[in-house]
Amino acid sequence: MSELLRVENVKVHYPIRSGFFNRVTDYVYAADGVSFSIEAGKTYGLIGESGSGKSTIGKAIVGLEPITSGHIYFQGVDMTDAKNRAHVNYNKDVQMIFQDSMSSLNPRKTVFDIIAEPLRNFSGLKEDGLAQEVRHLLDIVGLPAETMYQFPFQFSGGQRQRIGIARAVATKPKLIVADEPVSALDLSVQAQVLNYMKRIQKDYGIAFLFISHDLGVVRHMTENLAIMHAGRLVEIGSRDDIFNHAQHLYTKRLLAAIPEIDVPNRAKNRAHRKAIEQEFQDQKSAYYDADGRAFPLVAVSETHQVALPESMLEGEGF
Amino acid sequence: MSDAELLVAKNVSVSFKIHGQYVQAIEDVSLSVRPNEVVALVGESGSGKSTFATSIIGLHDLTLTQVTGQILVNQRDVLNLAPAEWTQVRGAEIGMIFQDPLAALNPLMKIGDQIKEALAVHDVYQEPQYNDRVIELLNQVGIPFPERVANEFPHQLSGGMRQRVVIALAIANKPKLIIADEPTTALDATIQAQILDLLQDIQAENGAGIILITHDLSVVAEVADRVAVMYAGQIVEEAEVGELFANPKHPYTRSLLRSNPSLDNESDELYVIQGTVPGLTHIDHHRDMFLDRTPWLPEDVRQEQDPKLAEITPGHWVRGNAWRVFKFADED
């Protein structure tokens, strides 16, 4: 148990302005009180539909999104205080892999410059050492060293995403936040990128926060999952907790919605999916409070937390 | 049976003019669709599945594209129709559901008016019926408060609701053949499930035949009756859905299934198909291009000339002979 990162009651609210004086009339609650913690070297999946706030949380962690309130602790130090950030090398230790590899790589820079930039910032290596290190990083993600002086547009989508991975690994970070890193890729390419990420995660003992809407990919990549809905977490648990013992109705609905390669049972699966959807529509009010927000998370086992009111937990426990 | 077929495409080839030369994008594709049937076309991007669908509904720019072969829609040859004749076929006999609903809808027109426009092109419904038909359609695709939505613009709707409107447009004139090109790719899992259910309900009501184009094998397993797998512009395998997933034969089909993360959740490494999909100008249509990505197979297997689709068991077609000896590199 060595806690690397703790997100505590983080809220990100965007103001909605309207009217003649352009005054703030309301807020969008992109993230509305999110808490979880990440242990060193472990993998976490953050799952939700578009608009659930999962990317907002990812950006808040790496510091790309100013948070409205709450705290993010990295190795016990509060990162929401800018003074502390530089002090503990937070920007070196936490890296991000983005969804769109084309827009996250500078089109005017060569692969060498792209990967060397974080090294120049943090490693203190000089030119010879830099070239050697970049070659080594390209090797890790399976790209030949000759590609070093090419530009991003000269690569396929899968190769570009691997450049993004090499850049993220360059500073030897302790945590990588990957926001939908494979959702733009074809199946055969996706498998390759996932394999590289998994291998690097294991070899270097990096903690991973994998943000995705694709439960199949997340199930493959991560041991711990968090389900997010409308800016709040509704369930946190191990792979087994979520896939075999889901308790929140929203989690069940999300699981039922994943199409499965199971042709003989597809009529049964479809009926099950429709039944869960109906249940969700009918009983939604019981699972959310009067404002439509998910309840606070309650621990039901050592690894498993569910956003349910006390009354619903009884009789349903383990 | 054959006289009831909604679509018969025979030996369809499509070439695009690139830098003054014609480059063949799809080669000798044959496919038929019967009423009440969902036929899935599966393949990675660049495999030619959308190109094929575009030629069925006649949306290629013929100054830059050559389409040869035979395409019969309700026994009518549509390959050589004049533009005015096409207007009668599109919408009335073939409906098309596009991937990106925001691009498929006119942003400046109210939903109801867009549907009325589609109705006005054909004489299936007459003017006084239009308003009722709009509400009926919006109801059918599961849009709540159809009277209100009919007066709204596309940007006021969510992605799932927009896709429902696109489906309503496609079925407005009750076409018997519906082409759905990646209808759920842009949608979240729960919305995707609802849209797939909706497609199946519509099919059951109208007795329509659906061509479902997708790269997602699990979507295929959920809704298709028959599956054609495409690679580099050719169909490499075709079978009933149960048969295809139980007994996949072609190396490409087997590789795709093996690299799917949702099937293979416990093992550490996902199967990776070596290499990449070949570019249009690098395709040799006299060979099975996928075998370039299985270099461990013997040379004579990979270089087989003019591999043909053959029926190996009733209804199950596989191209070439490589499947008979195919093994994964790590198999004994």
UniProtKB/TrEMBL annotation, chain A:
<dbReference type="Pfam" id="PF00005">
    <property type="entry name" value="ABC_tran"/>
</dbReference>
<protein>
    <submittedName>
        <fullName>ABC transporter ATP-binding protein</fullName>
    </submittedName>
</protein>
<dbReference type="GO" id="GO:0005886">
    <property type="term" value="C:plasma membrane"/>
</dbReference>
<keyword id="KW-0571">Peptide transport</keyword>
<keyword id="KW-0813">Transport</keyword>
<comment type="similarity">
    <text>Belongs to the ABC transporter superfamily.</text>
</comment>
<dbReference type="GO" id="GO:0005524">
    <property type="term" value="F:ATP binding"/>
</dbReference>
<dbReference type="GO" id="GO:0016887">
    <property type="term" value="F:ATP hydrolysis activity"/>
</dbReference>
<dbReference type="InterPro" id="IPR013563">
    <property type="entry name" value="Oligopep_ABC_C"/>
</dbReference>
<dbReference type="GO" id="GO:0055085">
    <property type="term" value="P:transmembrane transport"/>
</dbReference>
<keyword id="KW-0653">Protein transport</keyword>
<dbReference type="InterPro" id="IPR050319">
    <property type="entry name" value="ABC_transp_ATP-bind"/>
</dbReference>
<keyword id="KW-0547">Nucleotide-binding</keyword>
<dbReference type="InterPro" id="IPR003593">
    <property type="entry name" value="AAA+_ATPase"/>
</dbReference>
<dbReference type="Pfam" id="PF08352">
    <property type="entry name" value="oligo_HPY"/>
</dbReference>
<keyword id="KW-0067">ATP-binding</keyword>
<dbReference type="InterPro" id="IPR027417">
    <property type="entry name" value="P-loop_NTPase"/>
</dbReference>
<dbReference type="InterPro" id="IPR003439">
    <property type="entry name" value="ABC_transporter-like_ATP-bd"/>
</dbReference>
<dbReference type="GO" id="GO:0015833">
    <property type="term" value="P:peptide transport"/>
</dbReference>
<dbReference type="InterPro" id="IPR017871">
    <property type="entry name" value="ABC_transporter-like_CS"/>
</dbReference>
<dbReference type="GO" id="GO:0015031">
    <property type="term" value="P:protein transport"/>
</dbReference>
TrEMBL record, chain B:
<dbReference type="InterPro" id="IPR003439">
    <property type="entry name" value="ABC_transporter-like_ATP-bd"/>
</dbReference>
<keyword id="KW-0547">Nucleotide-binding</keyword>
<dbReference type="GO" id="GO:0005886">
    <property type="term" value="C:plasma membrane"/>
</dbReference>
<dbReference type="Pfam" id="PF08352">
    <property type="entry name" value="oligo_HPY"/>
</dbReference>
<dbReference type="InterPro" id="IPR050388">
    <property type="entry name" value="ABC_Ni/Peptide_Import"/>
</dbReference>
<comment type="similarity">
    <text>Belongs to the ABC transporter superfamily.</text>
</comment>
<keyword id="KW-0813">Transport</keyword>
<keyword id="KW-1003">Cell membrane</keyword>
<keyword id="KW-0067">ATP-binding</keyword>
<dbReference type="InterPro" id="IPR027417">
    <property type="entry name" value="P-loop_NTPase"/>
</dbReference>
<dbReference type="InterPro" id="IPR013563">
    <property type="entry name" value="Oligopep_ABC_C"/>
</dbReference>
<dbReference type="GO" id="GO:0005524">
    <property type="term" value="F:ATP binding"/>
</dbReference>
<dbReference type="Pfam" id="PF00005">
    <property type="entry name" value="ABC_tran"/>
</dbReference>
<dbReference type="InterPro" id="IPR003593">
    <property type="entry name" value="AAA+_ATPase"/>
</dbReference>
<keyword id="KW-0472">Membrane</keyword>
<dbReference type="GO" id="GO:0015833">
    <property type="term" value="P:peptide transport"/>
</dbReference>
<dbReference type="GO" id="GO:0016887">
    <property type="term" value="F:ATP hydrolysis activity"/>
</dbReference>
<protein>
    <submittedName>
        <fullName>Dipeptide/oligopeptide/nickel ABC transporter ATP-binding protein</fullName>
    </submittedName>
</protein>
<dbReference type="InterPro" id="IPR017871">
    <property type="entry name" value="ABC_transporter-like_CS"/>
</dbReference>
